[in-house]
Design brief:
Largest sheet: 7 strands, mixed
Strand order of the largest sheet: 15-16-19-14-23-20-22
Helix content: 25-40%
Number of helices: 12
CATH superfamily of the largest domain: FAD/NAD(P)-binding domain
Radius of gyration: 24 Å
Mean pLDDT: 95
CATH class of the largest domain: Alpha Beta
CATH topology of the largest domain: FAD/NAD(P)-binding domain
């Protein structure tokens, strides 16, 4: 096998939604690059596809490909062929089988990406895990969320934050990560998603995404596989207490009603499980406050973003995204986060009396507006309190302000009025594209002053990169507070808590930031469990 890099293909030759046409274009480009006849190519596969838009007059797709040839040595020795090398041998993921016997089935609390992949891997190895999820299965959860958006009836146990699939199920379904991945856990996650119905292209896109509409189908498929393999999933079932004996987990309480003997518990509870964090603090599970970020969602017309990024080629390309960073004059870093091309801003509240927003896109990303979080990092020094849950109190303070400003609806403001620190009374050219009701107000009052100042500074800096970003009609919605967990549940070597048998896992535990890294952390925890415990087919 050989690896071919920087295989350049004109955008006119590629239909990214037609795999067979795309592969035909890749093979044609290989024949030309390698100077071989079609019959000399035994097989090829795409490792990576990215869109190179650095030069507006020469926008093209760039591929990294692996290929098997009839005469590989001859091609590798040809010095005139650039960008080729022997394919790198992939390291295999480790496989373990511990010796300590499990007396009860392993329990996973939370069925977001971390809990889902941990449970799936345990089920595949015969551990027959039990998953408890405070929210509903995806079909019922979608109904609960839609009812909240349309009528304002919040289900505190099943909403944008809680339920099958986790918070990422009502987002863009982004699958990119910065995690170093020598063992290929990330690739394995992508292949698993594709197996259960995600588009095949996610396995090689530079910035893969599924979209919230397709992700729901994938989540359901993984659930059915866990059940088929002997696992159990209990929805509308919340972890409400734990009991430990001599430093070891002994039992867990479900829904304040049922005690269950439990030797091994994976805490994949998500970043919004504030009542669960309070319970864990009460039970002296070691935790610490950690940094996260807070800000707003900003909306522009998608046509503007795509035209600024791609020029005239925008009409032939998928909706453009962006990633922007800036060091503000007050010393705070401001950056875009979770950018949703062609998407919605959604009411992502999970507690009565508090309001938070998030972004969401469907697979086609064909809505009229682009939106992204503009956020500023905050640290425990900013929280104004002590203890591991100080960040949660900080979040609640600003979410309560947002709830009051919007009178229960999403508070919305034009950038022009945000800059002048006055409530908006009318909307300009850009119309909000929201899921949930909204109310014109002063979003700036829902943020710390230093965050608002950094956002204004950042918007003008970003306008130098994307002309029109500082449009006074741009829509700001608040507040974005659920960027990551404000808490870290401490774990030692072997990924266990200091209370033996408890495995903090994923984004809520403070060890991930998004669908991919959470799923990968779930796999890492599975591997540590198999190092310690033998499978007894409980």
């Amino acid at each position: 096998m050989i690896r071919i890099s920087q295989l350049k293909i004109n955008i006119e030759e590629i239909d990214t939604k037609d795999y067979e046409r795309e592969m035909a274009a890749v093979r044609k480009a290989l024949f030309w690059r390698l100077k071989i006849a079609p019959e000399e190519l035994l097989s090829c596969s795409i490792l990576r596809r990215s869109l190179d838009a650095r030069k507006k007059e020469d926008i093209h797709y760039s591929y990294i490909v692996e290929a098997a040839l009839v005469k590989e040595e001859k091609v590798l020795k040809n010095k005139r062929i650039k960008g080729i090398e022997p394919a790198v041998k992939k390291e295999s993921r480790p496989f373990f089988m511990g010796t300590e016997k499990l007396l009860e089935r392993p329990v996973i609390a939370g069925f977001g990406p971390a809990g889902m992949f941990c449970a799936l891997e345990l089920a595949r190895q015969g551990y027959r895990p039990m998953v408890i999820e405070r929210g509903e299965e995806i079909e019922k959860r979608v109904s609960s969320v839609e009812r909240f958006w349309q009528k304002g009836e919040l289900n505190p146990s099943s909403n944008v934050a809680f339920g099958e699939g986790g918070a990422g199920t009502f987002s863009d379904g982004k699958l990119n990560t910065m995690v170093k991945d020598k063992l290929g856990r990330g690739r394995y996650v992508l292949e698993t998603f594709a197996k259960f119905g995600a588009p095949r292209e996610i396995c090689y896109m530079n910035k893969p995404h599924i979209g919230t509409d397709r992700l729901r189908l994938v989540v359901r498929g993984i659930r059915e596989e866990i059940l088929r393999l002997g696992g159990e999933i209990r929805f509308s079932t919340q972890l409400t207490d734990i009991r430990e004996e001599a430093g070891k987990l002994a039992a867990i309480e479900l829904n304040h009603q049922e005690w269950l003997p439990c030797q091994m518990l994976v805490l994949a509870i998500g970043h919004s499980a504030r009542d669960t964090f309070s319970m864990l603090e009460k039970r002296k599970v070691p935790m610490a406050a950690k940094a996260f970020a807070i800000g707003v969602r900003i909306e522009h017309e998608q046509e503007l973003i795509s035209r600024m990024q791609y020029g005239e080629a925008a009409r032939r390309l998928p909706a453009a995204d962006y990633k922007l960073t800036h060091q503000a004059g007050n010393g705070r870093g401001v950056y875009s986060f979770c950018m949703c091309p062609g998407g919605f801003v959604v009411n992502a509240s999970s507690e009565p009396g508090y309001l938070a927003v998030n972004g969401m896109s469907n697979y086609k990303r064909d809505e009229r507006n682009a939106n992204a979080a503009l956020i500023v990092t905050v640290t425990p020094e900013d929280y104004g309190g002590a203890g591991p849950l100080a960040g949660i109190a900080f979040q609640r303070k600003w979410e309560e302000q947002a709830f009051l400003a919007g009178q229960g609806n999403i508070p919305v403001q034009t950038f022009r009025d945000f800059e002048k620190n006055r409530p908006s009374t009318e909307i300009g050219r850009i119309q909000p594209n929201l899921k949930g009701g909204f109310r014109l107000s002063n979003v700036r009052e829902c943020l710390p002053k230093y965050v608002a100042a950094a956002i204004i500074d950042g918007v003008y800096a970003f306008d130098n990169k994307i002309r029109g970003f500082a449009d006074g009609d741009a829509i700001l919605s608040g507040v974005e507070t659920r960027t990551s967990s404000p808490v870290r549940i401490l774990r030692k070597e072997g990924l266990e808590s200091l209370i033996s048998g408890i495995y903090p896992c994923g984004e809520g535990a403070g060890y991930a930031g998004g669908i991919m890294s959470a799923a990968m952390d779930g796999i890492k925890v599975f591997e540590e469990i198999t190092k310690k415990y033998t499978c007894t087919n409980l």
